[in-house]
Amino acid sequence: MENKKDISFILPTNRDPRNYSKKVVDNINSLNFYGKTHEIIVIGPTPVEGNNVIYLAEEDDATGCVNAYNEGYNISTGDYIILCSDDHYFDLNSPLITEVLNSRLFTNRKYKVVCLPTNKHGPCDLPDYTDCDSIIARYPVFARQTIEEHMEGYVYHPSFKHHYPDNWLGYWLAQQGEPPIEINKFDMITFSNSCDKMHDVHDEKVFRELITAYESGSQKYV
Is-contact 127 135, C-beta < 8 A? Predict the structure, then answer.
């Protein structure tokens, strides 16, 4: 793969870059990478420029961020994939979370997926109706090999639009016997509280349907 990088950041956005994605790009480029190379794949309707940025155009009428994450993954080159939001900063040493996937903690785990917490608070439990004692896989960091070999080439299930794909990822990993892990040594910090819930009814319906299908024997990620 030409110009291959160690880490790919995937950043969907549909808002004014000056107030959102450009701030995240600058934040990412200021992090400690300890010798690793990186790329920042920005997906949205408005072009974004910056060091290490690869811009992928998205239509103005695109619905939600899930398709953008998957499209961004499709052009990424990194051995590790870090999902971003356009309203969250990473703390300085966050790229080190990729080393966790190579640590003893993951030696016996099939799925190399680890999660970043937000705003220095603990994990978020899955909804009670899942009957699953596990957590939402917030801000997952993946080894590319896991996505390719076990997740059908998708970072998020493509039936979702915006929210709940991290619920499904957390549920699915737990059902595989490897509940997601958050590493509280690292953190993501919200700089603009702007949660969009317009697709939540659709996305929760998809989540419930996937749980039902899983319980009926359909146990693939996608």
Answer: no
Q: Is 132 helix (H, G, I), strand (E, B) or coil?
A: coil
At a CB cut-off of 8 Å and minimum separation 6, what does 195 contact?
none
Topology adopted by domain 7-215? Spore Coat Polysaccharide Biosynthesis Protein SpsA; Chain A (3.90.550)
Strand blocks (E) in the chain:
7-12, 38-44, 53-57, 80-83, 88-90, 113-115, 140-143, 188-190
| Model confidence, pTM | 0.95
What's the mean pLDDT when you consider all of the chain?
A: 94
For β-strands 53-57 and 7-12, DSSP reports them as unpaired
Tokens of 27: 């934040």
For the stretch 153-212, pLDDT in tens is 999 999 999 889 999 999 999 999 999 999 999 999 999 876 667 777 999 999 999 999
Pairing of strands 113-115, 88-90: unpaired
How far is 215 from 200, CA to CA, in rounded Å? 22
**Contact present, 161 and 66 (Cβ < 8 Å):** yes
Alpha helices in the chain (DSSP H): 21-29, 66-75, 97-100, 144-150, 165-175, 200-215
Query: Which residues lie below 8 Å from residue 99, measured CB to CB, with a gap of 6+?
Result: none
